[in-house]
Amino acid sequence: MDVVQLQRQLVDYKASLYNEAILDEQFTQLQELQDENNPDFVVEVVSLFFEDSERLLNELTKALEQQNIDFKRVDAHVHQLKGSSSSIGAQRVQKVCIAFRNCCEEQNVQGCLICLQQVKNEYSLVKTKLETMFKLEQQILAAGGSIPV
Predict the structure, then answer these.
(1) Domain annotation text (predicted)?
(2) CATH dotted code for 3-31+40-137
């Protein structure tokens, strides 16, 4: 596949991430902060989001497996996840976190468990989609092209 085809594929792929509400304008703002002095800025920030999210999802899973659930602690983890997903523009993760926090406030165990599964699914989706996008970008650069804006 030539560079122009890869670039077109990347543009279409990015558009689909916005059209499916997987990403929002915050991700665009994040990309605008990247420049030639820091060409890996977005990948680095998103990698930190992945690490942080996986830690928080593990903490949430453990917390919700307890006999006596500490809803304040669960809510604090969900609040962190909501903030970090918002900061990279992971819109669908953020929206599930809002519902999750409502379930924490109501101390709704079943609702929290459902939201945990939903947030895991949305996180997994955004992670897969962003990793695919980054691979496409790498293919373009390896072929001598530039990343279309």
Answers:
(1) Histidine-containing phosphotransfer domain (HPt) contains an active histidine that mediates the phosphotransfer.
(2) 1.20.120.160
Predicted local confidence at residue 106, as pLDDT: 97
Give the count of beta carbons closer than 10 Å to the beta carbon of residue 100: 25
> How far is 90 from 122, CA to CA, in rounded Å?
9
Q: pTM for the full model? A: 0.94
Do 90 and 17 touch, CB atoms closer than 8 A?
A: no
Every domain of the chain and the residues it spans? 3-31+40-137
φ and ψ of 143, to 5 deg: -85, 5
Cα distance between residue 26 and residue 146, in whole Å: 22
CA atoms within 13 A on the CB side of 16: 11
Instruction: Tell me the C-alpha distance between 21 and 74, whole Å.
Output: 26
Neighbours of 45 (CB within 10 A): 17
Cα–Cα separations (whole angstroms), residue 12 to 7, 15, 19, 51, 121: 9, 5, 10, 27, 23
Residue with tokens 């543009």, as numbered in its chain: 11
- pLDDT tens digit string along 88-128? 999 999 999 999 999 999 999 999 999 999 999 999 999 99
